[in-house]
Amino acid sequence: MAEALTYTIVAIALYLVSDWILRRIEAAYGHPLEYRTLIFFAILLLLAILLLLALASFALIRRLLS
């Protein structure tokens, strides 16, 4: 149960951060972007990959230091 809750919270956080980044990009351009959904997906995917890499590196460090 705790894992499902954690995954849900992380998914919501990734969504909100991706939306915030996209809104900042659109504010810089001054208008909504044409391929907004595709750009949102790319940002979300990038954040998920970065999170995965961070978790993997923490696990590797923990294993090397043990």
Mean pLDDT: 92
Main beta sheet, described? none
The figure for the number of domains is 1
Radius of gyration: 16 Å
Helix-strand sequence = HH
Shape designation: elongated
**Number of DSSP strand runs:** 0
Strand content: under 5%
Count, helices: 2
CA(first)-CA(last) distance: 28 Å
Helix content: over 70%
Q: Based on helices, strands and strand pairing, what is the structural class? A: mainly alpha
Flag low-confidence runs.
none
Layout of helices and strands:
Blueprint: H1 2-29, H2 36-65
Helix pairs in contact: 1-2
Describe this structure as you would to a colleague.
This protein has 2 helices and no strands. It is mostly helical and 66 residues long. It starts with a helix and ends with a helix.
Quick summary:
With 66 residues, this protein is an all-alpha fold.
List keywords for this structure.
66 residues, mainly alpha, 2 helices, 88% helix
